[in-house]
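Reopening this one. Same input as before:
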Amino acid sequence: MAAFVTFAVGIAMVRGYIVLSVSVTIVMILILSTKPKLHDCVKTIEPSELYYGIIFLIISAVMLPCYLIVVMTNALVKEGIFTFFIGTRKAWNLLTMCGIIVAGGVLGILFF
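Same output, byte for byte:
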């Protein structure tokens, strides 16, 4: 992995992304210098902690797009574009229903 990052940094440097290349190089040096400590930390993680961490990441990956949809819908409702076609109350009911369906599906897949 470090070899691939080094190769990508070299390409970025040649293309003129000097600040990005230096930043990635510094982060890579920091990560590689703490490699033994990170391995010791990973050895202490229990399987249940890893399982719940993965569930948290999955839920976050589902909820963030839902949040962005809410923000965009809110902007459209305020602008009147969405409400012109279906009305404000129906727009929020539709959004709430979609959110409940998505959340129920994710919870059903994860826990049942």
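So the earlier flakiness isn't reproducible anymore. For the record, Residues 47-79 form the longest helix (33 residues).
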